[in-house]
Amino acid sequence: MTFRQKYIAFLTIFNKEVIKSVRTWKTTFLPAIITTVLYFLIFGTFIGSQIKSIGGASYMSFIVPGLVMMSIFMNSFQSMLFKFYFLKFQKTIHEILISPMPAWLVVFSYIACSVFNGVIIGTLVFASAYFFETIPVAHPFLALLIVLLVATFFALLGLINAVYAKTFEDMSIAQTFVLTPLTYLGGIFYSITLLPSIWQTVSHFNPILYMINAFRYSILGFSDISLMTCLLVILGGIVIAFSWVLYLFKTGRGLKA
Amino acid sequence: MKHALNITNLRKTYEGGKQALKGVDLLIEEGEFFALLGPNGAGKTTLISITCGLVQKNPEDGKVFVQGHNIDTDGDNAKVNIGLVPQEFNADIFTKVEDILYIQAGYYGISRKEAKEQVEMLLEKLSLKEKRKSTPMELSGGMKRRLLIARALVHKPTFLFLDEPTAGIDVELRHEMWKFLQELNKSGVTIVLTTHYLEEAEKLCKRIAIIAHGEIKRLGTMEEVCNGRKLEEVYLEITK
Hints:
By secondary structure, chain A is an all-alpha fold. Chain A is 75% helix and 0% strand. In chain A, helix 4 crosses helix 10 and helix 7 packs parallel to helix 11 (227-251). The longest helix of chain A has 31 residues, at 59-89. In chain A, 42% of the residues are buried. The model of chain A has no long low-confidence stretch (mean pLDDT 87). Chain B is of the alpha/beta class and 240 residues long. Helices cover 38% and strands 25% of the residues of chain B. Chains A and B meet through helix 1 and helix 5 of A and helix 1, helix 2 and helix 3 of B.
């Protein structure tokens, strides 16, 4: 395939999936916004008003980056998981596998769709936070970079989950037993400096902690972990997940008989 | 004449130990209308799926060339030439008929503008024009089959696999489809057909292969294979 043909193939997948997401906005975008607004209301406003500031920021401001990040990565993960599982379930994936599109282009196209979904959700959730409190963004370009990287990482994880999933139950196992606990223990609602030292050490094994702290730094200008460490963990995660996905596509594991 | 499909010593053992193909050799010339006959589980779909890239094949499992392109080393160029009409309906049931065709063209790097003429021709020829804005959920069984054929042809392949294309459709429609496929073959497209309707193979194909238990048991022109007997008689004798 020439570069132009690859670009057309990319646009075909991107447009198809984005149109589907926009057409089903009530189930794609709305639930994440409603859930996060409830978090803002209950934890930020009702409970947050009773909590002293953290790092000079109000409790509401403190939890906004974590909640925005949560909505982005949860959506990127789920969006990829559902899109790809249904491609397998309906066997429409066969039409992609018999086409001359190289494996990396298929992966890249689907990641772009999930990242797009994640960015739209993140923007809407962040905008909704302004109804509760004005939050100045310390490093806007860094914030955008972190959003793109984290959404990419979770889109890759969603793809891996979808490739291995053989039943509908398999789709929810990783999310329920791994992703959700790591998310809530990833420092969205608290600074790890408030934890006993043993739990601080344990928390450092949670990759989500680095993503939330990187984003918190880009928004508020402070975090529990250095920005460089956070970026290295995120980039390392992307390299590992992307290599895994390419291996799955090249060997056909979970995709071909 | 150039070989449209050249398969040498193709073997396939699935995880779990089932040996689906046991060293198949097959040569199909350009422009042929070829029938691959055999009972369920004989290896027909595995052979097609390996050629199309839907079933994993290791280089040591034999060699497959499509229009001279080795699927192991030059798979992308081989795939450009192949169209596949699968046994089961597998189009996105929420997407409109015409969009299914444009999306399929897009996977091959063909823009909407470039694909328009071919899409319109296929919608017309396969009597899907009135249903272009419908989703597959609103189509009858026969229309769904025609949609799969249109989708397989949208990128103008030179080699078409039809995996039981007329299964479960009425006699009238089957005859219409035969006419369309014969025209397509006359236009230069090589066609490999798998079917359980032996009269279909007799009507459409000059050469046939009968495959059973992962091996080609008989291969040749209809006359060579039948040798004065009925195809059904020969088929039952070979596959029992």
